[in-house]
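Q&A log
Question type: sequence-to-structure
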Amino acid sequence: QVQLVESGGGSVQAGGQLRLSCRASHLTLTFSPVAWFRQAAAREREFVAAVGGRDENIGYSDSVKGRATISREHAKNTVHLQMNNLTPEDTAVYYCAASRIYTPDFKTNQSYYDFWGQGTQVAVSS
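Response status: OK
Response body:
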């Protein structure tokens, strides 16, 4: 049974940074497109960042571009999301998602992904 487990969330002040991690079991993330989404209170879940299989393509939402970096740590079968210069608007539950089907492209559509983590809370205070 595939599982994705996020970690690294927490409470920080504006301007701070966090590194979120998504570790997979029973799925090799190297070949899987992986994405991060987030959902703030009373808002729909939205795309944050994604990487295609084999790290061939990477994409970011306009809201985090220049402040976020998605990367894989192959040895730990983990994908990280480094978030810098956080603002209160980044406050949300962050979810990682992965697909079982290889593609070099990054995917921003939630419906593309087969597996989801339980989420990790990020709270940014001003």
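Response note: The chain has no helices and eleven strands.
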